[in-house]
């Protein structure tokens, strides 16, 4: 099975630092790339970490705070300069188009690639994107401005053919497509072969949930139940729990609580406040509740 | 004499790399800071290199290509978040205000500090800024869009008092200000003391010229004649001279030729194309013509 790859381009928050740039990550699945958030410096990190964006056609923006979206202007400007042709769709709150279009139009030529803004309503659970490989659904969050996370769900995969059986029943190639989808087979003598004799079950579709920025909220749990990996913001530590509440952010302990309650496979913490020089306390705090936790850092790559 | 300090925040060009961010530098003189250009990632470099921007009230933008100005949005957004109060003036081609204001207004609160756009005409030699310490004058350049360099000229400095003479003539404190400016002194008996007996000459005012982006042009020479330091773009090497011409840029050898003809003290090369991994050939090429050349790199600090 081809892996789903995720690269963290930026793991910082509002104040970017040398080691923790503004929020951005790229998910690669079935040959396509999807960007989630695009803070300042994203185009630099793409080059630094050699992220493949040849098939990046969609950017998903969680909310319109500058640390989650201002890298879009520079990225588009550079892609235009490099001669990109494919349309790029930006899924974001409707205001993004109004505030960003003047700069984008100014820095790109008229014959440059097309940029489409797909306005989303962050306060509703809606499937905002789908292609052959996956669907993307918004996860409403609680932040100072309208904000949503994203659930990336791989589509149902095909069942695996049992080669020896396919040969034994002399099944024509034209029938394989439907058999992989679960159809039975009827041979030339009218004999029915049940699908279970010809295939083994499909791999489980993979799911990735991105949650940033938000106050601790259990409302998201039903949507992210059992995902292979949950990225959850942990801007603060418990010692600054009050500050987290005031600014509508989450602590590492709270993120781990969500991971545990949602029964996810793995938790990634990120979006650290610049006040913390050392991130080890984040993992210590989270592991008290949810052991399979890792810390995001700029350049981190992992697979589902 | 308090030094004039210059910090290179970004020494790259259109395609930023891990080591060479978009163009930006900060000049510090007589307690104030002045930013020249502000490409993507400038706010990150400010934090990384611990540049003092408490008294940064002016940003000078050479031209409206994205690698020279898109960092302004993030910088302002962050300064607003940190509670800055002082007005910030951006000296740039008039279009900047139209394209950037929507984002700046969106990402800052109504009670945030004031941002003033001072529209400049890059095709004219004009003094666009002055304060107690210095004047800033545009230097028209030849690029694909209206573009100018900047000449930072320290104002005439005061003459140095000869302490022993001031004491010997029992000169009151109230007269020292005019004496430092060159006035003679008349004592209570009507005896005239020539200024030359009371002071030694003032230090020479310092000058810094910033030239980026431009085709090789000797028209700038009269304006930058004899400056203490010339920063000149060197996007290409001579081996790519044709490419330099096509894209309205300069080679290292051409930059050195300008430095020699303008009889400057020191030359700094920067704004390297991302195609060159190694910058040593730039210095080799320039030194054939102008020996006192150094290479800009992100984080380089030097004094005039």
User: Number of folding domains of chain A?
Assistant: 2
Q: What is the succession of H and E elements of chain A? A: EEEHEHHEHEEEEEHHEEHEEHEHHEHEE
How big is the Rg of chain A? 22 Å
Average residue-wise pLDDT of chain A? 96
Oligomer state equals homodimer
Record the strand order, biggest sheet of chain A.
6-5-4-3-2-1-18
Number of helices of chain A: 11
CATH class of the largest domain in chain A: Alpha Beta
Uncertain segments of chain A are: none
> Can you summarize the main beta sheet of chain A?
7 strands, mixed
Task: Reconstruct the topology from this structure.
Two copies of one chain form a homodimer.
Chain A: E1 5-10, E2 24-29, E3 32-38, H1 42-48, E4 56-60, H2 66-69, H3 71-81, E5 88-93, H4 95-107, E6 115-120, E7 127-130, E8 134-140, E9 148-154, E10 160-161, H5 163-168, H6 176-180, E11 185-186, E12 192-193, H7 195-198, E13 199-200, E14 207-211, H8 221-224, E15 229-233, H9 241-246, H10 252-261, E16 267-270, H11 280-287, E17 293-295, E18 301-303
Parallel strand pairs in A: 3-4, 4-5, 5-6, 14-15, 15-16, 16-17
Antiparallel strand pairs in A: 1-2, 1-18, 2-3, 7-8, 8-9, 9-14, 10-13, 11-12
């Amino acid at each position: 099975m081809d892996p789903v790859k995720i690269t963290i381009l930026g793991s910082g928050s509002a104040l970017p630092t040398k080691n923790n740039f503004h929020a951005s990550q790229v998910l690669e699945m079935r040959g396509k790339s999807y960007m989630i958030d695009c803070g300042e410096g994203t185009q630099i990190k793409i080059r630094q970490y050699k992220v493949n964006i040849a098939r990046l056609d969609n950017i998903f923006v969680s909310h319109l705070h500058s640390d989650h979206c201002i890298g879009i202007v520079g990225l588009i400007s550079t892609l235009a300069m490099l001669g990109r042709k494919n349309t790029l769709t930006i899924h974001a709150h409707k205001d993004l188009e109004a505030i960003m279009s003047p700069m984008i139009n100014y820095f790109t030529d008229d014959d440059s690639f097309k940029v489409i803004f797909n306005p989303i309503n962050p306060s509703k659970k809606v499937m905002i994107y789908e292609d052959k490989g996956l669907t993307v659904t918004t996860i409403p969050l609680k932040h100072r401005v309208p904000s949503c996370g994203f659930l990336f769900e791989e589509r149902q995969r095909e069942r695996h053919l049992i080669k020896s059986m396919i040969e034994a029943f002399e099944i024509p190639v034209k029938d394989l497509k439907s058999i992989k989808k679960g159809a039975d087979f009827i041979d030339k003598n009218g004999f029915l072969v049940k699908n279970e004799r010809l295939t083994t079950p499909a791999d489980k579709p993979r799911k990735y949930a991105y949650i940033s920025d938000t106050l601790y909220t259990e409302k998201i749990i039903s949507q992210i139940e059992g995902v292979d990996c949950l990225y959850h913001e942990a801007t603060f530590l418990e010692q600054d729990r009050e500050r987290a509440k005031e600014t509508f952010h989450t602590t590492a302990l709270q993120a781990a609580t969500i991971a545990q309650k949602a029964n996810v496979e793995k938790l990634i913490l990120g979006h650290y406040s610049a006040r913390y020089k050392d991130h080890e306390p984040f993992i210590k705090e989270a592991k008290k509740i949810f052991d399979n936790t890792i810390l995001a850092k700029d350049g981190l790559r992992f697979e589902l």
